[in-house]
Amino acid sequence: MYHPELFVIRHGQTEWNVARRHQGRLDSPLTAQGRKQAGDIGVTLHRLLAGRDDVRAYSSPQGRALETAALALEPLGWSVQRDARLCEIAFGAWEGLTQDEINARWPALASLAEVDPISWHFTSPGGETYLDLARRVDAFLSQLAGPAVIFTHGILSRVLRARWLGLNEHDMLGLPGGQGIIFHLSAEGGHQVIEK
Q1: What is the pTM for the complete model shown?
Q2: Is 1 inside any structural domain?
Q3: What are phi and psi of 148, to 5 degrees?
Q4: Can you point out the beta strands (E) in 30-181?
Q5: pLDDT digits (tens, 9 = 90+) for 87-103
Q6: pLDDT tens column, 141-183
Q7: Which partner from 9, 98, 104, 155 sits 20 to 30 angstroms from 83, CA to CA?
Q8: Total tally of structural domains belonging to the chain
Q9: Which residues are catalytic?
Q10: Which InterPro entries does the protein's record reference (predicted)?
Q11: The domain that contains 160 carries what CATH number?
């Protein structure tokens, strides 16, 4: 299935990223490093997209993604449309916890995290499954009318890029991740990583 050109961006570093806490639907503010990452992305986006009037910007409504979007889009003078389908995976009972805290409370799942880290992310009590995220992503992609810049989150970014590329949940483990990076998906170039 054809999907429009995408520029996918994970939010900048947050205080809970530094503390290694699972955020999910909870939020924590960007760090100084996270704000710098967003600003650097803005410079790169301006270089890549200035003068293009066919591109729209979308963001998860979560604070860390919106703040990243505001800082990154400032050089272009673009506004961003919020879309709840771009929210991070809901981690249920794991939200706000570190990996050590999760392992202590759910020891049976600790080995799964080592053997199959992708599947592990979709086993949190009261959280979302891969199918939940795939449905959200597919609904979003099916309604895109043209190229888009998307501000989202770590897990959602991987699922979004995997669905665009036609990869399954296990193959998406091979996709690169990280903050301060733009993932460019296009019919001509496939999946490319753009750094400043």
Answers
A1: 0.95
A2: no
A3: -150, 145
A4: 56-59, 81-82, 148-152
A5: 999 999 999 999 999 99
A6: 999 999 999 999 999 999 999 999 999 888 888 899 999 999 9
A7: 98
A8: 1
A9: 11, 88
A10: His_Pase_superF_clade-1, His_PPase_superfam, PG/BPGM_mutase_AS, PGM_Phosphatase
A11: 3.40.50.1240
Strands (E), the chain: 6-10, 56-59, 81-82, 148-152, 182-186, 190-194
**Cα 110 off chain centre by:** 24
What span, in angstroms and rounded, lies between the C-alpha atoms of 109 and 85?
27
Does residue 16 sit within a domain?
A: yes
Do the beta carbons of residue 146 and residue 56 sit within 8 Å? yes
Closest to 103 (Cα-Cα) out of 126, 127, 120? 120
Strands 6-10 and 56-59: unpaired
**Do the beta carbons of residue 141 and residue 166 sit within 8 Å?**
no
CA angle (66 as vertex; 124, 135 as ends), nearest 5: 45
